[in-house]
């Protein structure tokens, strides 16, 4: 008797699994950056256009393929055409690359989470130097949060070649991260189905708490105004449209095979059209929601730094000229400065190099993305809030949930084809296969915990998946529309959900999306060729102490 | 004598004077009483440091008091012909008793500043086991317990299933032999037979 395929307990689990997979760290740390770079509120226009042209159709396509073929990526594409088996294998390989380096982020989130149970937070102030007369030199030059990230967490080496040793603390956190992932995927859909209830909903609870907290912070409004003021001239910049298309594409996680894997555990009569629309809309809404939170935090941090800068200038002037305490405030600062410059030109000129020009715009202008945003900027904002331990715990738990949700999808993409293959499934039980995959990934992932590990991480993050995914999805779309035949696909969908797809879907699948992907592909290839040698940003002692995580 | 007069009039010109400053955000009310307290504290510090009980409040001289609340002060030694105590000694005395002096004014190292006297920063209290290891240990144990539980229950379930199917097969064999009085081996269960009684009735059913 053949074992029936495991199924989701109810369609809600499937939707939650897709949301948990699609809503990941990119929604929190990449979208706000893009919004800031490409015209604030105006960026939403290319974003929604791309959502309609490529996001929803491609998502629906993958879910339908998975649900119809009821197999993981390799099996599904083999069913469509025996020559397309390679597409499935490519998906599995890319998922494997991703899972290798992605779980390191969860390890970092665990590290910060565990350190949030201290009072004061370890990144709140610089540590003392060896003879206790002042603060550690490295820390003084930058800031406590940067120091904690680059020195205490990563212990970063000056360059890729100087590998350095394994950081045992990070290695432990990575092992824990893989054990947690193993716990969630151990029983297949049975265990994953329960876990996604938590990983999908907890981030929203935390985001709502942060939204309320963020909006009530002093100076949050500055950030929001700065973000939402649309700079519509950016719409003429082709990079804005390309970034929107790329963001939609990677945010939904197309091409990895995870969506096919999840959909293959569906009842054949599941309405995947409705689910595709729901998932893509929720994903985009979450991006916007997260960027509101991020910008209120930015505004708070920028205002805080601006006011500290002003206070330092006031203190310096008050001490130097022995003015009465309280006579110099932020309002009369420029007037008094002018008066002092005129009255005591000599002394004022001596003091001038130390007086920094404080500007709120300059503070807001620092556009940050990636791990720099998540671990440096946010922790800097958190340490200045009251009850910072609570907010810190909430925030890093949210990062952890987002990361684990995406990992569940990635591992499903690898494991589903493996467990579908009769050869492997007869020899090894599901638990052993999952265990082996987790173990291999963990061992390879230890590379990222070395001192030069962050450089490897950057290289993987920037170059491992981009072109491959574009190619995979392009072949997928062309295969379904032209090799399998759009009429046949229509009939399959009619059998599954009860009605044929409308002309919107068919036009997008057959013409719009492939054209868009081809143009993205050409753009990226020309970009790589024009850039010349691909590079990473090292942390050079002589040039700039820490790698510039600010990318304009 | 003129020299002594000049020295008495402007002691702050001397090298041994130390500058002190109150830098308070809410504006510290500095008056003659506070000055008196300050002189008393400095005298107290000198007494503790040098174990001489000869330093009096009158030995501490303040000058150049500004509205900012900053001033210079010197400590004179009445036993040695009105000479001033070397600055280094005063510095050491103040550094040793910094905490007491701060507490008298309810200020701290940042708000009551003695220039030239750098404060030794106190390191934060570090517990013997880092806190993060404890939390890590807890989460690790929970995760491993969960994994072991799931694996063990999975194995148990598989054993129960296989033993159940074995029992079912056994029961089948027992009952089959006496089912309807006809031994089951004669009824070819796998092949299936068309029951002739029902085949004829097909025509009576209305076609869809």
- In helices, the fraction of residues of chain A equals over 70%
Based on Cα principal axes, name the global outline of chain A.
globular
- What is the succession of H and E elements of chain B? HEHEEEHHEHH
Largest interface summary: A-B, 32 and 31 residues
Rg of chain A, rounded, reads 26 Å
Protein structure class of chain A: mainly alpha
Could you report the average pLDDT of chain B, rounded to the nearest whole number? 73
Separation, N- and C-terminal Cα atoms of chain A: 61 Å
Beta strand % of chain B = 5-15%
- Return residue spans of chain A where pLDDT drops below 50 for at least 5 consecutive residues: 541-552
Helix content of chain B: 40-55%
Say what oligomer this is: heterodimer
Radius of gyration of CA atoms of chain B, rounded to a whole number? 48 Å
Helix/strand/pairing category of chain B: alpha+beta
Shape of chain B: rod-shaped
Largest sheet report of chain A: none
Number of strands of chain A: 0
Low-confidence stretches of chain B: none
Strand content of chain A: under 5%
Q: Total helix count of chain A?
A: 24
Cα separation of the termini of chain B: 136 Å
List its salient traits.
heterodimer; A: 552 residues; mainly alpha; 24 helices; 71% helix; globular; disordered C terminus; B: 208 residues; alpha+beta; 5-stranded antiparallel β-sheet; 47% helix; rod-shaped
Give a structural overview:
The complex is a heterodimer of chains A (552) and B (208). Chain A has 24 helices and no strands. Chain A is an all-alpha fold and 552 residues long. Chain B is α+β, with helices and mostly antiparallel strands and 208 residues long. Chain B has helices spanning 2-9, 32-50, 87-96, 98-105, 131-176, 196-201, and strands at 18-22, 60-63, 70-77, 83-84, 112-114. The mean pLDDT of chain B is 73. Chain A: Keywords: Glycoprotein, Membrane, Metal-binding, Sodium, Symport, Transmembrane, Transmembrane helix, Transport.
